Structures are given as C-alpha cells and as structure tokens.
TrEMBL record:
It comes from the Bacteria. One of its GO terms (molecular function) is O-acyltransferase activity. The keyword Transmembrane does not apply. Keywords: Coiled coil, Transferase. One of its GO terms (cellular component) is cytosol. Belongs to the transferase hexapeptide repeat family. This is Acetyltransferase-like isoleucine patch superfamily enzyme. Residues 163-190 form a coiled coil.
C-alpha cells in the first residue's frame, strides 16, 4: 500500500504533521511545527517546505491558508495572514506549457516572498512568488498581489494596486480611537454587571 521511496517518505512526514496538527489549538500547533512560541496557527493551515519558512514573533495565520515556502518565505513580527489565503513561492507554468510537468522537473521556477513586520493580509488573498510586501502594509481581502507592495500602504484588487498611503501619525490616531471605543464598551458592560470576555463587547442598541 505504501511506497518506500525518498519522495513518498518525505511527503508522508508532512501528511502526518497535518493530521496531528488537527488535534491541537493554534498555539500548540505553532509549537509542534517549531515556530515561535508567540505564533498562532489556526486549523487546516498547510505549510509547504516548512524548513524554508522564517516566521517572526506574534504572527497569526488563519484557517485553510497555504504557505508555500519551497522558494523561501519570510514573515515579519506582528503580521497576520487571514483565512483561505495562498502564498506562492514557486510556479509550474513552464513545466505545464512544455509538457514536462513531472516530479523534479527543472522547469519549476522558484522565487522568495518576503512579508514585512506589522502587515495585515486580508482573507482570501493571493500573494504571488517573488513579491516583497513592506512593513506595516495592508492587503485588502480578495486581493491578488503580483508586484511589490510599499511599506505603510493599502493595496486592493486583482491585480492589487495602491489605494492609500499612511504614516505613524495616522496609525497612532487610529489606535487611540479604537482603544477609546473598546474602553467605552468595557465600561458599559461593567455598568450592566457583565464580565467582558473579549475586552470589547458591543454596545446595545439603546446605548447602554
């Protein structure tokens, strides 16, 4: 039933890791995969060639995301990648076009992807091989990123393009706004005698 060759045995190790990872929570799964203790990896995330993945601290990877690190993949500190995302570092296009799409084909092209620190990659987005995403960049959900993304910018669309640029002052102002809103929600919950679980329960329609 099982093939006893180098490729089969190598792939089987990944299959076993995926199976075992299905029984772990997000922190346990990251630890099991040898990633930083502060990393959280949600269920059904697949990492291709994990030995080529460099992951920073305090990263979050959503459900059903595929991280292809076969060509080299670096993800900076405090970066989140949403659910159902695809990050590619290789392509078999030429192997397909030349009818040479066999295992080990020398027409498989690989280029590294680098995602900076403090980035937010929205759900259902695709990052193509060879792309560099600068620090504190935002990729809107459902985007296809085919070119480098400048730091402190928001990109969206297919292919993704820059829609907004921001700076530290903008981020600071937005952080203060959200902290104030969450503090108000916590205060409202406490006034109702509730214990906020996530720190920011919604305000009721009556404003209480």
């Amino acid at each position: 039933m099982f093939s006893d060759d180098e490729r089969s045995n190598r792939l089987r190790a990944g299959i076993v890791n995926d199976f075992v990872g299905g029984f772990l929570n997000d922190v346990e799964r990251a630890r099991f995969l040898g990633l930083p203790e502060t990393t959280r990896i949600r269920e059904r995330t697949k990492i291709v060639s994990p030995e080529n993945l460099v992951m920073g601290e305090h990263c979050w990877i959503g459900e059903n995301t595929v991280l292809d690190a076969s060509g080299g993949l670096e993800i900076g500190d405090h970066t989140s990648i949403g659910l159902n995302c695809l990050v590619f570092t290789h392509s078999s296009w030429l192997a397909n076009m030349t009818l040479e799409n066999y295992s080990g084909s020398d027409l498989i092209e690989r280029k590294p992807v680098k995602i900076g620190k403090g980035c937010f990659i929205g759900g259902n987005s695709v990052i193509m091989m060879g792309v560099t995403i600068g620090d504190c960049a935002t990729v809107s959900p459902l985007s296809v990123v085919t070119k480098d993304v400048p730091a402190y910018s928001l990109v969206s669309g297919n292919p993704a393009r820059v829609f907004q640029r921001y700076d530290q002052e903008h981020i600071k102002a937005e952080a203060e706004r959200v902290r104030a809103e969450n503090a108000a929600r916590r205060a409202a919950a406490q006034a109702r005698g509730e214990a906020p679980v996530w720190g920011s329960p919604a305000v009721r329609r009556d404003g209480q």
